[in-house]
Design goal:
The complex is a heterodimer of chains A (292) and B (235). Chain A is mainly α and 292 residues long. A two-stranded antiparallel ribbon of chain A has the order 1-2. The longest helix of chain B is centred in the C-terminal third of the chain and has 18 residues. Chain B has ten helices and ten strands. The radius of gyration of chain B is 17 Å and the shape is globular. By secondary structure, chain B is an alpha/beta fold. Classes of the chains: A mainly alpha (292), B alpha/beta (235).
């Protein structure tokens, strides 16, 4: 029982990161109808920026803020420079652009900061909380930061005019233009926000998986699994999916013989395939009917 | 002259849908664009809002707006209730109205306008927190008109407002349009299949046939001409 509870808590903690990644993926998917395969690399690059700022002697939270702000700007720029010109191009062109972005970010991170594994600090410490080894301070911090982030996003999308405009632009671009919303800028804003959320996720997971250019590969797969599980059309669903994937991953790794640490990643892929077979639009998603 | 259109051509890919279309709408006027299915009525409205590729000349308030982005044209005060109404179905009635005022900055004015609108459309007030997709067809059309008015437009473009509505609802809707025109002085360009109703509301009418304007006359003249009514308007 103790072990089960411990694994669920640990699953919630990593699930929080998957939830952030799933949310980033969904934000861009809502705006441009494509999965951003470079989301993980964007988060990794953001984390390196924070690492660099700290290496230059800045305190953690200042580095954190710098990374989030630069990531936001970078996300907007990527949309304007790379994806705006091809927004009417076929799916494959977009796919190629995503792959290009992926390898550009991956190899330039390797070039600038090399591929050796680096330690990344946690602002929360690693002391066990509640004295029983159930959950440590950093894990609790991951969950806490994620929940705060979600709360802020909820307020932004439900309570502000800009949030309303972004929702309208994603739901129905043509009608949004007819009420004067600059849909292109809303898309860019979505990219910026997704990049900023990814930066937070990267900085939270880096103390666990250690910092190196390939650190987000597995994390993004879990993020995709979470997004697909919850439904790509539903931000709330994606977050729930992310948490669920984190718990499933941990429980399967602990309690199913032979899975262990090595086969844990397989779980994510099996989940994606299984969900797509049984409920193609995800658990909280809805079927999108398009007129031809 | 508020809206001046001259030599307007419109294209869908290689296909030309409009040929040298010319018409005018002045401040506060109600004009209608009649014609059979496929004559190009919807295309005229879409051209005005920069939603299709066009040639020729469109001027609004003295500015040449041909080739402008839709959102920039809208910001000049052109509100368009498109075919299919353009409602945000998964948002609430009130959110839809807020979206209509997205280009405005005066929060107090927006709140006051929403309240005034609820006076004109009491059914919308009852359903303000409901998702727009759950409204009846008539209520959705009222919402679409209401959303367009939230822009405080100088020109309101209406694409078949009567489409799919029960006759009683259509009459109510046209009565409301007449009242809004009288109260706010917003000009209207109405595309309609229901020619009888449109001719009653409008002072001037254009008849469109396969992408060309074939008749340009006061509504009373067109309504009174039996041969036009029979051959073009079907009543």
């Amino acid at each position: 029982m103790e072990l089960l509870l411990q694994q669920v808590m640990a699953g919630l903690a990593t699930g929080a990161i998957y939830a952030c990644m799933a949310l980033s993926v969904v934000m861009i998917y809502q705006a441009i109808d494509h999965l951003n395969f470079a989301q993980g690399e964007m988060a990794m690059f953001s984390t390196f920026i924070a690492w660099q700022a700290m290496a230059w002697g800045l305190p953690y939270w200042l580095a954190f803020i710098i990374s989030v702000v630069l990531s936001f700007i970078g996300g907007v720029l990527i949309e304007r420079v790379l994806f705006r010109p091809i927004h009417n191009a076929p799916v494959l062109s977009n796919l190629v652009a995503f792959i290009a972005l992926f390898s550009i970010l991956n190899s330039s991170a390797g070039y600038i900061w090399d591929f050796t594994i680096k330690e990344f600090p946690t602002p929360f410490g690693t002391k066990p909380l509640f004295g029983r080894g159930l959950i440590d301070a950093h894990e609790a911090g991951m969950i806490g930061v994620t929940l705060v982030l979600l709360g802020l996003l909820y307020v932004f999308f439900r309570g502000t005019r800009l949030g309303l405009a972004m929702r309208a632009a994603a739901a129905n671009p043509e009608s949004a233009r007819l009420v004067g919303i600059r849909v292109g800028w809303m898309t860019a804003l979505g990219w910026g926000m997704a990049a900023a959320i990814g930066a937070v996720a990267g900085m939270l997971i880096a103390p666990v998986v250690f910092l190196e250019p390939n650190m987000m590969l597995g994390v993004l797969l879990y993020g995709f699994a979470g997004a697909v599980l919850g439904g790509l059309a539903s931000p709330g669903g994606a977050v729930a999916g992310g948490f669920a994937v984190g718990i499933i991953e941990n429980l399967a790794g602990t309690f199913i013989p032979y899975v262990g640490r090595e086969l844990k990643l397989t779980i994510a892929l099996i989940l994606i395939v299984a969900v797509l077979m049984i409920r193609p639009s995800g658990i909280f998603g809805r079927r999108v009917v398009s007129r031809v | 002259m508020m809206l001046e259109v001259d030599g307007l051509d419109a294209f869908y890919g290689q296909n030309q849908a409009l040929y040298r279309v010319a018409f005018r709408v002045d401040e506060g006027q109600v004009r209608t664009l009649l014609g059979a299915n496929g004559a190009g009525k919807t295309t005229v409205l879409r051209s005005l809002c920069g939603m299709v590729r066009t040639g020729g000349d469109i001027r609004f308030g003295g500015k040449r707006i041909s080739g402008w982005a839709t959102e920039d044209i809208v910001r000049l005060g052109v509100a368009h209730v498109p075919e299919g109404r353009g409602t945000f179905l998964r948002m609430t009635v009130e959110e839809n109205l807020q979206l209509g005022a997205m280009t405005r900055r005066d929060r107090a004015g927006i709140t006051a306008d929403i309240e005034r609108l609820y006076g004109n459309f009491p059914r919308l007030k009852e359903r303000r927190t409901q998702q727009a997709g759950t409204l009846s067809g008539g209520e959705q059309q009222m919402l679409a008109v209401g959303r367009a008015l939230m822009l405080r437009p100088r020109l309101l473009l209406l694409d078949e407002p009567s489409f799919g509505l029960a006759p009683l609802i259509v009459e109510e809707l046209f009565a409301i349009l007449r009242r809004i025109n009288a109260e706010t002085g917003v000009a209207m360009l109405i595309v309609e299949q229901n020619a009888a109703l449109a001719l009653e509301l409008a002072e001037h009418a254009y008849l469109l046939e396969t992408g060309r304007i074939v008749m340009d006359a006061p509504a009373a003249v067109i309504g009174a001409d039996e041969s036009i009514r029979r051959s073009y308007l079907g009543y």
